[in-house]
Structure formats: C-alpha cells, structure tokens
Specification:
Helix content is 50%, strand content 7%. By secondary structure, it is α/β, with parallel strands linked by helices. It folds into two domains: 180 residues, Rossmann fold (3-Layer(aba) Sandwich), CATH 3.40.50; 103 residues, no CATH class. The protein has a five-stranded parallel beta sheet, sandwiched between helices. The longest helix is centred in the C-terminal third of the chain and has 22 residues.
Length: 391
C-alpha cells in the first residue's frame, strides 16, 4: 500500500506561522514536484477553511470571529457550508491522489479548536485519503507569547500598557499547552505529534524555515526559496503612537474603517524609526506570570518534550520600570499622528481621483473626531487637506 501522509501544522500562534505559510505558498510548484500538495480549497496559505470545518455547531465568541472571516454567521449557514466544503475537499484530495503528501497549516487550530470532537472531525475528513499523519506544533514560552500578543492588541485598538496583560489571562486555555498536546494526541496518536520549541537555538541550523522543512521530511531544499520574515515586530515608537491613537479612539467611542486603516498604516510605516524604547514588563512580572505554568510545563517537558526545556532566561529589566519613562511627549506623538493622517488622506485623494470630492463623509467626520483635541497647527493642516479633497 502506498503510504500517504497528511502533515498538519497547528501553530501555535505567534510562532512564525505566517512566515511558514508564505514559504509554502511561494514554493507551491516546487513542493508539488517533491510530492507535497499544499491544500488550496478555499484559502491558499492560512487554511482557515479547515479550521471552520472543524468547529462545532454552536461556536464560542472566538470561534464565531473566525467563522465571520469565512462569511458564516449562523448555525444553519455553518452546517450548509460544512457540507459544501466537505464535497470540495473530497474532490480535491481525490484529484491529487497521485501526490503522496498533503500539507495543511493554520495557527488557528491552536486558538479556535476547543475539544476532541473538533479535532476528530479533521481526522475523519482526511482518513479516506491518507494513512499516515504528522501533527507539527511549535510552542513558545507563555510569557514570551503574551508579550508578543501585545503588538497584536495595539494593532486592534488595545490600550493596555503592560505587555503581559494586554490579551489572555494566565488561566486562559490559550496558554494550556498540555491540554492542547493531549487533545491532538488523543485523536492522532502520541507517536504522530512533533513538538518543537520556538527558540532559535532549537531550530535546525538555527532557521525556522529549515526546521519546518525538516519536519516535512524534506532534505533537498536547494530549490526552495525562503521568503522575507513576516509580521515584523513593532518598534517602540510605533507602539507609543498606536497606544496614543487607540486612547483617542476609545475616548470618542468610535472604531470604524478609518481607525482600522490608520492602525495598519502606522504598523507598516517605514518613517517611524524614532529610537524610542518599547513597552516591557520587568523581570519580576515575567517570573510571576510564568509561576502560573510551573507544574503544567514540568509535566509537558517530562511527558512530551523528550528532555528539551523552555529557555529559563528572561530578557527584561531587573527592576520595575516606570512605564511613563522615555515616553514621547504628547506634542511629539500628535505631530507624528498628524503626518500619518495626512499621508493617509493623500492615499484616499488618489483613490478618489476620478471624483470631485471624497465620497465618504463618515470618514471625514471620523478624522475630525480624532483630531478635535489636536493643537491649532495640526488641526489646520488636516482641515486644509480635507477641504482640498472634500470641498
């Protein structure tokens, strides 16, 4: 019997999953020649569709947020969508039966799949087509994961100043790696789990890309192109500017398209390179956060990590920082935000070049709301720009 393997990469979140997905997407043809089919039923890179298929009929809020991305908004619609997806999946997997390996990847398997029955749904979908499975997951020490989520919180409107408190609480199942591992092992078998520590010193040849390709049992990588690193972390000045903008937005109680697009612009801006120190938790805060996971991580290391351990070093200040230290002044942040808004309006002006005025009056009102407390100089600059494109 021909051995056909389904490789299932389940994250976890903030462990380079986007970079891995770009690696797979950019090398789809090369991987096909090597005998690997990267799933592309509804999504080519992050396989949200497989995650949506696994989710039970009555999702929690986090799961529903993902389903909304796939345009699923009620249980009946979800049921019908599942039936259609299953037909598409079976057709594609049958049409690619000559390719012996399948690759599925989504970090949302970590954050959105909550129980054994949901994991089992994925296995039952794949069993008619594959007789071998390998579940690949990267684990990042919980305090480092929490600190990484701080940037994501800022990008979505967060106003918390402590990186360890900006997202999930320590008691959240999100950080429960032991339960995650045992849930997937229960369905796919302990022998079919490959658990990697998300630490550069642990990667094969200190490269995440080479480490992941090795997990796919690919040794010949000379024709595989490595993409640039994805999801570059925010620098300190971007963090401060996003926080300033989010606090203004929260004060006005609005969070529309303008706010989303401006956050995206700030996060991707190449002009915000001011050498401002970013937000950090201190060493004692990291230690206190990690203490919650001591017994869990000890059991994880003993049973699942084959003698490997999370790094114990904490790269942070030894004493509690005053979180307002080294913070850019309000005037500085306001000037920077004004420049970003003006650049944003330039983009909007170009997109409306065929019309005499900016068509979206709500966007104009939102800009005025954001800048209502700005100083006279900045308010005048923005008003002048809006009047030019929205007379």
């Amino acid at each position: 019997m021909l051995m056909k393997t389904a490789y299932i990469h389940i994250g976890t979140e903030k462990t380079g999953s986007t970079s891995i997905q770009q690696l797979l997407a950019n090398n789809r043809n090369t991987l096909s020649e090597l005998g690997y089919h990267v799933a592309n039923i509804q999504y080519d890179d992050n396989h949200l569709d497989f995650v949506a298929y696994c989710i039970d009929r009555f999702p929690n809020d986090q799961q529903q947020a993902l389903l909304s991305l796939v345009n699923i908004n009620d249980p009946i619609q979800h049921l019908r969508w599942k039936e259609a997806f299953k037909l598409k999946a079976e057709q594609q997997l049958s049409n690619t039966r000559q390719i012996k390996n399948l690759v599925i990847t989504s970090e949302h398997f970590h954050s959105r799949i909550k129980n054994v029955s949901e994991v089992n749904r994925l296995q039952q979908l794949l069993l008619p087509h594959y007789n071998k499975f390998k579940v690949i997951l990267y684990l990042r020490r919980q305090d480092q994961l929490a600190a990484s989520l701080f940037n994501e919180a800022l990008k979505y409107g967060g106003t918390c100043r402590n990186p360890l408190q900006a997202s999930h609480k320590p008691s959240s199942p999100y950080f429960d790696y032991l339960n995650l591992v045992e849930m997937w092992a229960y369905v796919f078998g302990k022998e079919n789990l490959s658990i990697r520590l998300f630490e550069k010193s642990q990667f094969f040849e200190k490269s995440l890309y080479k480490d992941f390709l090795r997990e796919l049992d690919i040794s010949d990588t000379k024709n595989i192109d490595e993409p640039p690193k994805a999801n570059i972390a925010l620098n300190g000045y971007q963090q401060h500017l996003l926080l300033f903008f989010n606090e203004i937005t929260q004060r006005h109680g609005t969070n529309g398209q303008l706010h989303k697009e401006l956050r995206e612009k700030i996060a991707s801006s190449n002009t915000l390179k001011n050498k401002t120190e970013g937000f950090q938790a201190c060493k004692s805060e990291h230690t206190q956060f990690l203490d919650y996971f001591t017994e869990m991580n000890r059991a994880l290391e003993k049973k699942w990590l084959k003698g490997n351990f999370f790094s114990s070093s904490i790269d942070s200040a030894d004493t509690l920082r005053t979180r307002i230290a080294n913070t850019p002044s309000r005037e500085n942040l306001e000037d920077a935000l004004t420049r970003e808004i003006l650049a944003y309006l330039d983009i909007k002006e170009q997109s409306y070049s065929n019309t005499p005025q900016l068509a979206n009056s709500k966007l104009v009102n939102d800009v005025f709301d954001v800048t209502s407390l700005f100083n006279n100089k900045n308010s005048a600059l923005i008003r002048s720009k809006i009047e030019k494109i929205h007379p």
